[in-house]
Amino acid sequence: MNKNTFAVKIKEYLHFHVAAYGTATKLKQLLDNCGSVDVINKENQTLLHVAVNRGNFEIIRMLIDHSINVDSADKDGQTALHIAAEKGYEEITQILINAGSSLCIKNKNGKNPLDLAQQQKNSTALVISNSIRHKFLHAIHCGDRQHVIQWLSEDVHTSLDAALHLATVNNDSSMVSLLLSQNVSVSCIGQEGKIPLHIAAANGNLNILQLLLSKFPDLDVQDYVQYNTLKQLKD
């Protein structure tokens, strides 16, 4: 190993050491003098992987501010979010999600961050589940068919029942049809004990009613306020 190569290796070692144990001020000095946030080690880990593994909030925020790739994967296919989820770091998990970390990337064992959190019975599972639910339902609310299809294709938990209620409330027959194609339960109970059939009847949306009835022909199901679908249709 020549002197130049050795010097580069020493600098890289310093970067990772500071990312794990140092301060944002010290890392910034190193980066300003001789480096990039995109450096990787022999495990194909980035500075973000190392900072998350050590729970170094200050460094994590600094690296995100410097536009580090939050979805870079190490040799095991693990992103920084996989590490945070598995270790149970709630706040770091939320920071990474807010920074745009993918919730769906799978490691080499076929596990996404939610899988790892649930496997370890960590509270980060709730953080990730809530984020998935929010993003999925937001796509439903906006009628963003492309992103809804993308979420449905991913092997992550999604709130299909709540999505069907929301699509019905929005009178979005195209979205209702898409969700029904995923075999979502049309008898799922929402607010005030209403099922999507009640909502469609109250809205007078015959197109959605026909879609729902093709899956659930029982017109006698009562909701908690003692109205059934036939009565709502008459009203």
UniProtKB/TrEMBL annotation:
Key word Hydrolase present in the record?
Answer: no
Keyword Transmembrane helix belongs to the record: no
Q: Give the residues annotated as coiled coil.
A: none
Enumerate the UniProt keywords alphabetically: ANK repeat, Repeat
| SUPFAM superfamilies to which the protein is assigned, alphabetical | Ankyrin repeat
Which domain of life does the protein's organism represent? Eukaryota
- Where are the ANK-type repeats located? 43-75, 76-108, 192-224
Q: Pfam families in the record, alphabetically? A: Ank_2 (PF12796)
Know the name of this protein? Ankyrin-2 isoform X1
* Species, as recorded: Thraustotheca clavata
